[in-house]
Specification:
The protein has about 1500 residues and is an all-alpha fold. The chain is built from 39 helices and three strands. Helix 28 runs antiparallel to helix 29. It is flat, with a radius of gyration of 67 Å. The C terminus is likely disordered.
Length: about 1500
C-alpha cells in the first residue's frame, strides 16, 4: 500500500512538472512571437508560428539585421530543401557567435528541425544581447540592474514590492507604478487595487501600447495563470527603453549653463598654474646643473667649505621653493576640484609642466642633492684617508730597505765546497733564507697595498709613493736573482758528489737485476711447451732456435752494460759499495748458468716430436671413414626426393626405398671401431675432419626423421584438396541463383511506402545473406592459398594445384552478381527520391497557404478596427501602423502570394495526384488578399482627420516659456545689485532670493501647460525649442549662481581665518627658535658635537624646512586672498590682517641671523673634536704597537739561557746587542708619543688624564726594558765556561791517545761512509767546537764544524742535546764487538737534538726531513738484504768465499746532521729572543733505529770507552 502511495506521488509530481513545463513554453512562445513581430514589422514581415516559421532561417536573418543594423551577407532567398535551410541557419549561428553571444547546446539542426524549447532559448539569447545587455548599474548584471531600476522607481508606491520578475508583477500594480512614476496623468494609481489584478494588467498594457507606443508582449491570462520570468523581463525592458530616453534628455539640458559660466575662472587658474610651474621648473633645472658639477680643489679645506655652502642652501634657499611647490600643487588641486565638480574636461598642463612633471623634477633635484652631499662626504673622507695611509707607508718602507741591505751581503758570499755534507748544509742555509725571503713578501705586499691605495686615491704624494714602490720591487727582484745564482753554484757542487753515489746505486741495481733475469729466464726455459700437434711441435724448432739466439744476445748486452758501469766506477776511483757485495766476476759466472738450461730444453723437444707423428696417422683414418658415411646419407636423401606423383603413390615409393635405415647402421659400426683406437693413443681432436662420432650418429637420426616428415606431409595434402572441392561448388550454385534474380525489371506501386519497403528489403539482403556468402567466398580463397603455399614451401618436388573449379572461376561469378546488385540499387533509390520530393512540395504548399491565410485574417481584423485617438501620439501611432501595413502589403505580401503560385505550378508539373485541389486552394487565397486594399483606403481617411486638432495647444506653451526666461534674467540682476562684507552680504542675498520661491511660482504656470501637452502625448512642439526641462534648467542655473556666490563669500571668510591661525602659530615658533640659538653650549665630546651638528642639520632639513614652507604658504595665502578680492566680480574691501606678511618676514630674518651664528659655532666645535679624535687614535695605535713590542722583548729578556757551548753564548750576546741597538732606536718613537700626548692634553681632551697616565706608563716600561737588558748581559758575560773548556781539553787529549792505540779497531770501520749529509768521517778525525763564521746573526744558529788532522773541514754538526746523551748511554750498553762484525748492517748516528725554535713552520719541516732520512736508510738496508737473497737463490753453487767477500763492504760509519735554529724576523725586523731551554728531566730520549740485522752505530765516545 505504501509503495502504491509513493508511486502516485511521483506520478503527480511528474504530471505537475509536465504542466509547468508546458505553461512556460506556451507563454514564452506567445511573448517572443510578439517581440519578434514588433521588430519584423519594420520590414513588413510577420511570424505566425514560432515553431514553424523560423525553420528556413529567413526571418531570423531579417530580425538580426534589424537589431544589429548590419547586413548578414548572401543567403538563400527561397530555401526549398533542408540543405538550403541549414545554410541560412549556419549563417545565423555564425553571426550570433561573432557578436560575442555564447550558445549552449543550440545548433542549426535544432532550429531547422523546429525544436521549440531550443528555439525559445535562442530568441531569449538575442533579447539578452540586443535589449537587456545595455542596462547596467555598477557591477550588477543586466537582469539585476533592470530589477534595481524597477525597485527604485516603485519604492514609494503602496502594495508594490518588486523582488523578482514573476510574482512581483502578477497583480499588475508594478506595471501601473512604472507608468505613473513617469507619466502620472495617464493612470490614477490611487484608484487601483491589488485584489483586481486582471483590471490592473489590462489597464497597464493598454495605456502602454496606446499612449506610450510600448507593445503588449504579455497576455493578461498568462500573467494570472503563470507569470514567466523571461517574458516579463522582455516586457519590462521595453518600459525601460522608453522611459530612460526622456530622462536622459532632461539631465543633459541642466548641465549646459554651469559649464559656460565657469570657463573664465578656469582659464585664469590655468594661466596662473602655467606661470608658476614654469618659474619653479627653471629654478630646479638650474640647481640640478649646479649640483652635478664636481669641481673640487683636492684639499680638505675646500671640501669643508663646499659642505658648509651646501648646508646653507638646504636651510635657506630650498625651503621657500618647497613652499612654492606645495602652493602650486594646491592651485592645481583646487582647479581640478572645480573642473570635476562642474564636470569639465581635466586640465592637462603644457608638456613638462604637469604636477607629475614638477614632482619628478623635484625628485631629480632631491637625488642630485643626495649625490652632491655624498660626493662632498666622499671627498672629505678621501683626504683624511690619504693622511692615515701615508703615516703607515713611510716607516714600513724604511724597514724593508734596511732588511734588504743586510741580506744582500750574505747572498754575495761564495763558500768553498769539498764534501757532500758541506754542500747540503749550505743549501739548507739557503733554503732558510728563501723561507725568510718568502715571508718578507707579505710585508712587501702590505707596502704595495698601501701604495696602491694612495695611488688610487690620487694623493699629492703619488710620485713619491710610486718611486718607493718601484725601488722596493727592484730590490726584491735583485734579491731573488742573487739567491738563484747562489743556488745554482751550490747545486753544481752538490751534483758532483751525488754522481759518485749514483754510480754505486746503479751498479747494485744492474747486478741484482741481471741475477734475477738469469734465474727467471732459466726457469722459463725449463717450463717450455712445444705444442699439442705434429705441426706445432715441428714448427716450434725454429721458434726454439730463435729464442736461444735472442736469450744469448740479451745476456751478452746485459753483461756489456755491467762491464761499462764497472769501468766507470773504476775511473771515478770507487772501490767500495755499501749497496751490494757483487763484483764483475760474480756476474760472469752467473751468465754461464743460462747455457746449461738451453741444452736441456733441446733433449725434451726430440721426445715430444716422435709421439705426435703416431697420433696424426690415426686421425687421417677416421676422417676418410667419416666422409664416406656423409656421402652415403646425401645420396640416400636424393633418391627419396626423386619419388613423385599424387600423395598415395608417393607414400608407397618412399617407404619401399628407405627400408627403416639398415644401410646407415652398417657405416656407423666401422666408425665406432676407429674412434676407440684413436682415443687409446690420446687423440682428443682431429683437424682433418669436422665430424665426430656423436655428430655422425645425430646425422643418421636426422635422416630417418626427414623420411618420416615427408610421409606425413603427403597425407595432409590429400585431406586439404578434398575439402576445397566441396566448398567451392556450393558457393558457385548460390551466386548463379542471385544473379538471375537481380537481372529482372523493378516493380513499383508508385508510393513512398512501397519505395521505402523495397529499399529496406535490399539493404537487409546486403547486411545478412550476402555478408554470409562473402565470408564463405573468403574461406574458399583461404583454402586454395593454404594448399598452394604448402606445395610451394615443400622441400620435395610436388605438382601444382589444379582443382575442377578454381578460385578465379568463383571470382568471375561474384563480379557478375555485384554488377546486377548495383543496377538494382540505383533504380530503388531513384524512385525513393522522387516520392520524397513530392511529399516535401505538398507540405510546403500547405504551410505557405496556412501562413498567408493567417496573415490576411490578422490584417483584415486590424483594418476593420476603429481605435480611439485622444492624443497626438495615439494618432501618430495609428498613422505609422497603417503606413507599415501598406509597406508590408505591397512588399512582403505580394512576394508571398507570388511564391505560393510558383509552388502550385511546380506540383502540377511533377504530375502530383492532388494537383486539382492545389489549384482550387490557391484561388481562394488570392481573392482574400485582394479584399484588403478596400479596407485600407477607408482607415487612412479617418486617421488624417485626427491629426489637425493638436496644434493650438503647442502655440500657447511657447508664449509662456518665453515669459519665464525673461523673469529669471530680471531676478539675477536684483541679486547682482547687492554690496557689502561677506557675513552681512550673505544674509541680504538670501532675503532677496527667498530660496527661489518667486521663480517656482512662475515656473508652475509653464509646467501646467506642459502637462496638458503631455496628456495629448505631444513630445515635440513645432512652435518652440523650449521645454519644461529647459525652463527648470534656467531656474536651476539661477539657484546655482546664488549658491556659488554664497560659497565664495564663505570661502573668503574661511581663508582669512586660516591666515590668522597660521600667522600666529608661525610667529610663536620663530620666537622659540630665536631663544634656542641665542646662547650655544657644548659638552666637550666628539659624540656631543656630532649630536649637536646632527640636531642642527635635522632642524634645517625638517624643522625649519617645514616652517619655511608654512611661511611661504602664509605669504601665498595672503596673496591669494588679495588676488581673489581684486578679481571678484563685485567690489570687495582690502585685506588687513592682525599680523601682516611684512612683520612675519622681519621676524624670520632675525631668527636666521642667530641660526647662522650658531651653525658656525657648532661646526667649529665638531672640527676641533674630530682633530682630537684623530690624535687620540694615533696615540692609542702607537701605544698598542709599542706595548706589543715590549711584551715580546720583555719575554725574551726574562727567558732562561740554556747555553751549552761557548759559541752559543756568543750568539746570545750578539742577539742581545741587536736588541740594545733596537731599544736605543725606539727612544725617538717614545719621545714622539710623549709629544703627541702633550698636544692632546693641551687641546683640553675630555679624557686627557687617561692619555697622560698611558704616556707615563709607556716611559716607565722602556726604563724597565733597559734594566732587564743589563741584567741579561751580566748573566751571559759570566765565566762559567772556563771549567768546561779545561775539562774538554783533558778528555780530548785522552781520546787522541786512545785512537792511536786502537788503530786496527778503527780501521775495521773502513774508510768511512757518507751520512745523511754526505760527510765522510775520517779514521783519526777530531771534533773542534767553533762558531760558524758564515751566515749568523738574526737566525741565531749555533753550529759545530768537523775538521781532520790537517785542519780541513769535513762536516757540520749541531749542538748535542738531551736526546743524544740518552742515545749515547743506550749505545754504550751494546757490544762494540758485535757491531763491528755486522758488515751488512746500516749504522746510524742520531745527533739530533730537540728543536728550540717556537715556529711551527720550521719545526714541522725539520721533523719531515728527519723522518725522510730514517726512511731512506731503511730502504737502503732492505735493498741490500733482498739483493743478497736473490744472489743466493740464483747461484747456489757459489763458494762461501764470495759471501764473505761482501762483508768487506760496509755502510758509512756515521751520519752527521745539522740542526740550525732559524727564526724569521718580525715585521719591525727585531731579533726574536730564543725560548727558554727545556729542563733536562722533561726531555724524551729518542729511541735508536732498530731494524733487522742493523744495530745502532757506536759514536766516537763509545769507541773511546771500548
Amino acid at each position: 500500500m505504501a509503495d502504491t502511495e509513493g508511486d502516485n506521488k511521483r506520478k503527480n509530481f511528474r504530471a505537475g512538472n509536465m504542466l509547468a513545463d508546458q505553461a512556460w513554453v506556451r507563454v514564452q512562445k506567445k511573448t517572443f512571437t510578439k517581440w519578434c513581430n514588433m521588430h519584423l514589422k519594420k520590414r513588413q514581415l510577420n511570424i505566425d508560428d514560432l515553431e514553424v516559421d523560423l525553420r528556413s532561417g529567413l526571418l531570423l536573418i531579417q530580425l538580426l539585421e534589424i537589431l544589429s543594423d548590419k547586413n548578414l551577407g548572401r543567403h538563400e532567398k527561397k530555401p526549398r530543401m533542408r540543405i538550403q535551410e541549414m545554410a541560412n541557419m549556419n549563417l545565423v549561428i555564425s553571426f550570433v557567435k561573432s557578436e560575442g553571444i555564447r550558445l549552449e547546446n543550440i545548433g542549426p539542426n535544432d532550429l531547422v528541425d523546429g525544436n521549440l524549447k531550443l528555439t525559445l532559448g535562442f530568441i531569449w539569447t538575442i533579447i539578452q544581447k540586443f535589449v537587456i545587455a545595455d542596462i547596467s548599474e555598477g557591477e550588477l548584471t543586466a537582469k539585476e540592474a533592470l530589477l534595481l531600476w524597477c525597485q527604485r522607481k516603485t519604492k514609494t508606491y503602496d502594495n508594490v514590492n518588486v523582488k523578482n520578475f514573476t510574482s512581483s508583477f502578477a497583480d499588475g500594480l508594478a506595471f501601473c507604478a512604472l507608468i505613473h512614476v513617469h507619466k502620472p496623468h495617464l493612470i490614477d494609481y490611487n484608484s487601483l487595487s491589488a485584489d483586481d489584478p486582471k483590471h490592473n494588467l489590462e489597464l497597464a498594457f493598454s495605456v502602454a501600447e496606446n499612449e506610450l507606443g510600448i507593445p503588449a508582449l504579455l497576455d493578461v491570462e498568462d500573467m494570472l495563470e503563470y507569470p514567466d520570468e523571461k517574458s516579463v523581463i522582455a516586457q519590462v525592458a521595453e518600459y525601460y527603453r522608453v522611459f530612460s530616453s526622456s530622462q536622459q534628455q532632461d539631465i543633459a539640458a541642466r548641465r549646459i549653463g554651469k559649464l559656460l559660466e565657469m570657463t573664465r575662472e578656469h582659464d585664469r587658474m590655468k594661466a596662473e598654474y602655467v606661470k608658476n610651474a614654469q618659474a619653479l621648473m627653471d629654478w630646479i633645472r638650474a640647481k640640478i646643473d649646479e649640483f652635478e658639477k664636481r669641481d673640487f680643489e683636492n684639499t680638505l679645506e675646500d671640501a669643508r667649505a663646499k659642505t658648509n655652502a651646501f648646508g646653507d642652501y638646504k636651510s635657506q634657499e630650498r625651503p621657500p621653493k618647497s613652499a612654492e611647490k606645495l602652493e602650486l600643487e594646491q592651485l592645481y588641486n583646487n582647479l581640478a576640484l572645480k573642473l570635476r565638480s562642474h564636470q569639465r574636461p581635466e586640465f592637462i598642463p603644457p608638456e613638462g609642466l604637469s604636477v607629475a612633471a614638477v614632482q619628478g623634477a623635484w625628485g631629480d633635484l632631491e637625488k642630485s642633492e643626495v649625490d652632491r652631499e655624498e660626493a662632498l662626504r666622499a671627498e672629505l673622507e678621501r683626504q683624511e684617508k690619504i693622511a692615515r695611509l701615508l703615516n703607515q707607508f713611510k716607516p714600513k718602507v724604511a724597514k724593508l730597505e734596511a732588511w734588504a741591505a743586510d741580506k744582500e751581503s750574505y747572498l754575495e758570499q761564495r763558500e768553498e765546497i769539498n764534501s757532500l755534507s758541506a754542500a747540503q748544509v749550505h743549501l739548507k742555509l739557503l733554503e732558510s733564507y728563501e723561507q725568510e725571503y718568502e715571508g718578507s713578501k707579505l710585508r712587501v705586499e702590505a707596502v704595495n697595498k698601501l701604495g696602491k691605495q694612495l695611488l688610487e686615491l690620487n694623493a699629492r704624494e703619488s710620485d713619491f709613493v710610486q718611486q718607493k714602490m718601484d725601488a722596493v720591487a727592484s730590490e726584491w727582484q735583485e734579491l731573488s736573482k742573487n739567491a738563484k745564482t747562489k743556488r745554482e753554484y751550490l747545486e753544481e757542487q752538490l751534483a758532483r758528489e751525488e754522481r759518485k753515489e749514483a754510480l754505486r746505486k746503479r751498479w747494485a741495481e744492474m747486478a741484482n737485476a741481471f741475477n734475477r733475469w738469469v734465474g727467471d729466464t732459466a726457469e722459463a726455459v725449463g717450463d717450455s711447451h712445444f705444442g699439442d700437434s705434429l705441426e706445432t711441435v715441428t714448427a716450434y724448432r725454429s721458434t726454439m732456435d730463435e729464442n736461444d739466439a735472442l736469450l744469448k744476445s740479451q745476456c751478452g748486452e746485459k753483461m756489456q752494460e755491467l762491464e761499462t758501469c764497472w769501468s766507470e766506477m773504476q775511473e771515478m776511483g770507487i772501490t767500495d759499495n755499501r749497496y751490494t757485495a757483487l763484483t764483475i766476476e760474480d756476474e760472469r759466472e752467473t751468465a754461464s748458468e743460462l747455457d746449461s738450461a738451453l741444452e736441456h730444453r733441446h733433449e725434451e723437444y726430440e721426445r715430444e716430436l716422435k709421439h705426435q707423428q703416431e697420433m696424426e696417422a690415426k686421425r687421417k683414418e677416421f676422417a676418410a671413414a667419416a666422409e664416406q658415411f656423409v656421402a652415403f646419407l646425401q645420396q640416400d636423401r636424393q633418391a627419396i626426393d626423386a619419388v613423385g606423383g599424387e600423395p598415395d603413390e608417393a607414400i608407397a615409393g618412399v617407404q619401399a626405398h628407405f627400408q627403416e635405415g639398415a644401410a646407415g647402421a652398417k657405416h656407423l659400426a666401422d666408425l665406432t671401431r676407429i674412434d676407440t683406437e684413436a682415443r687409446q693413443l690420446g687423440v682428443t681432436e682431429n683437424r682433418h675432419t669436422e665430424h665426430t662420432l656423436p655428430t655422425l650418429k645425430v646425422a643418421n637420426r636426422e635422416h630417418a626423421a626427414y623420411v618420416a616428415d615427408y610421409v606425413a606431409e603427403l597425407r595432409e595434402e590429400k585431406a586439404l584438396k578434398e575439402a576445397f572441392d566441396k566448398r567451392a561448388s556450393t558457393l558457385a550454385e548460390w551466386i548463379s541463383a542471385k544473379t538471375g534474380e537481380f537481372s529482372g525489371e523493378l516493380e513499383s506501386d508508385n508510393t513512398l511506402g512501397g519505395a521505402q519497403a523495397r529499399v529496406n528489403e535490399f539493404l537487409n539482403y546486403r547486411t545478412a545473406e550476402k555478408a554470409e556468402r562473402a565470408a564463405e567466398k573468403g574461406a574458399v580463397e583461404a583454402d586454395s592459398a593454404t594448399i598452394e603455399d604448402q606445395l610451394q614451401s615443400s622441400s620435395h618436388d610436388r605438382p601444382a594445384f589444379a582443382p575442377a573449379l578454381s578460385v578465379a572461376d568463383v571470382q568471375t561469378k561474384w563480379d557478375a552478381l555485384e554488377e546486377a546488385e548495383k543496377s538494382r540499387e540505383e533504380a530503388l533509390y531513384a524512385e525513393l527520391r522522387r516520392q520524397e520530393r513530392l511529399r516535401e512540395l505538398s507540405r510546403r504548399f500547405a504551410k505557405d497557404v496556412k501562413d498567408l491565410v493567417a496573415w490576411i485574417r490578422e490584417k483584415k481584423a486590424y483594418l476593420e478596427q476603429s481605435p480611439a485617438m485622444e492624443t497626438f501620439t495615439a494618432a501618430q501611432v495609428q498613422s505609422t501602423l497603417l503606413s507599415d501595413f501598406e509597406e508590408e502589403y505591397g512588399g512582403n505580401g505580394q512576394k508571398r502570394l507570388a511564391a505560393l503560385r510558383e509552388l502550385a505550378a511546380e506540383l502540377q508539373s511533377e504530375n502530383y495526384s492532388d494537383a486539382a485541389q492545389v489549384q482550387s486552394r490557391l484561388q481562394e487565397v488570392a481573392d482574400a488578399f485582394d479584399g484588403l486594399q478596400t479596407l485600407r483606403d477607408s482607415k487612412r481617411a479617418a486617421i488624417d482627420a485626427e491629426l489637425a486638432r493638436f496644434d493650438a495647444k503647442c502655440k500657447e506653451f511657447a508664449e509662456a516659456a518665453d515669459a519665464f526666461l525673461a523673469f529669471v534674467e530680471a531676478h539675477r540682476g536684483e541679486v547682482n545689485a547687492l554690496r557689502g562684507e561677506p557675513e552681512p552680504l550673505s544674509g541680504q542675498i538670501r532675503d532677496t532670493y527667498q530660496e527661489g520661491a518667486r521663480v517656482a511660482e512662475q515656473l508652475a504656470k509653464a509646467e501646467q501647460l506642459a502637462q496638458e501637452l503631455s496628456a495629448m502625448n505631444i513630445s515635440k512642439n513645432p512652435h518652440t525649442q523650449l521645454t519644461v526641462p529647459t525652463l527648470k534648467e534656467a531656474a536651476a542655473k539661477l539657484a546655482d549662481y546664488v549658491k556659488e556666490y554664497l560659497q565664495q563669500l564663505r570661502y573668503e571668510q574661511e581663508q582669512k581665518a586660516l591666515f590668522d591661525r597660521r600667522a600666529t602659530a608661525l610667529t610663536e615658533w620663530i620666537d622659540e627658535t630665536r631663544a634656542t640659538y641665542s646662547e650655544p653650549s657644548f659638552d666637550n665630546t666628539l659624540e656631543g658635537a656630532r649630536e649637536a651638528v646632527s640636531a642642527f642639520n635635522e632642524y634645517r632639513k625638517t624643522g625649519k624646512a617645514s616652517r619655511a614652507a608654512d611661511k611661504n604658504v602664509i605669504v601665498s595665502l595672503g596673496a591669494n586672498i588679495e588676488r581673489r578680492l581684486a578679481n571678484s566680480a563685485q567690489p570687495r574691501p582690502d585685506f588687513a590682517p592682525a599680523l601682516p606678511v611684512a612683520d612675519i618676514e622681519s621676524r624670520w630674518a632675525s631668527m636666521e641671523a642667530l641660526e647662522s651664528q650658531y651653525g658656525d659655532a657648532v661646526y667649529a666645535e665638531l672640527a676641533r673634536q674630530e682633530q682630537l679624535a684623530k690624535l687620540v687614535a694615533q696615540f692609542d695605535s702607537e701605544k698598542s704597537d709599542m706595548n706589543a713590542w715590549a711584551d715580546k722583548k720583555e719575554a725574551y729578556l726574562n727567558a732562561e739561557d740554556a747555553i751549552d757551548t761557548l759559541s752559543a753564548m756568543q750568539v746570545q750576546l750578539n742577539v742581545l746587542a741587536s736588541f740594545e741597538e733596537e731599544l736605543n732606536a725606539s727612544q725617538k718613537r717614545l719621545s714622539d708619543v710623549r709629544s703627541l700626548a702633550d698636544q692632546i692634553v693641551a687641546d683640553n681632551y675630555a679624557q686627557k688624564d687617561r692619555v697622560r697616565s698611558d704616556a707615563d706608563q709607556l716611559a716607565e716600561r722602556w726604563s724597565k726594558l733597559a734594566r732587564l737588558a743589563q741584567e741579561k748581559r751580566a748573566r751571559l758575560s759570566s765565566s762559567k765556561f772556563d771549567d768546561h773548556c779545561k775539562a774538554f781539553a783533558k778528555h780530548a787529549d785522552d781520546a787522541a791517545a786512545f785512537f792511536g792505540s786502537q788503530k786496527e779497531v778503527i780501521a775495521s770501520l773502513g774508510k768511512g761512509h757518507e751520512g745523511e749529509w754526505g760527510a765522510a768521517v775520517p779514521r783519526r778525525g777530531i771534533v773542534q767546537p767553533v762558531a760558524h763564521t758564515g751566515y749568523l746573526g738574526e737566525w741565531g744558529a749555533a753550529m759545530r764544524v768537523l775538521y781532520d788532522e790537517s785542519g780541513n773541514e769535513i762536516g757540520w754538526r749541531g749542538e748535542p742535546g738531551a736526546s743524544e746523551s740518552s742515545r749515547k748511554k743506550k749505545s754504550k750498553r751494546s757490544s762494540s764487538k758485535k757491531n763491528l762484525k755486522k758488515a751488512d748492517s746500516t749504522t746510524e748516528v742520531s745527533g739530533d737534538k730537540k728543536k728550540k725554535h717556537s715556529s711551527k713552520k720550521h719545526s714541522s719541516k725539520k721533523d719531515g726531513e728527519s723522518s725522510s732520512s730514517s726512511s731512506s736508510k731503511k730502504k737502503h738496508s732492505s735493498k741490500k738484504h733482498s739483493s743478497k737473497k736473490e744472489g743466493e737463490s740464483s747461484s747456489k753453487k757459489k763458494s762461501k768465499s764470495k759471501r764473505s767477500k761482501s762483508k768487506k763492504h760496509s755502510e758509512e760509519a756515521a751520519a752527521i746532521e745539522v740542526s740550525a735554529e732559524v727564526a724569521a724576523p718580525a715585521e719591525e725586523d727585531a731579533v726574536e729572543p730564543a725560548p727558554e731551554a727545556e729542563p733536562e728531566a722533561a726531555r724524551e730520549p729518542e729511541p735508536a733505529a732498530q731494524e733487522e740485522d742493523v744495530a745502532p752505530e757506536a759514536t766516537q765516545e763509545d769507541v773511546a770507552s771500548e
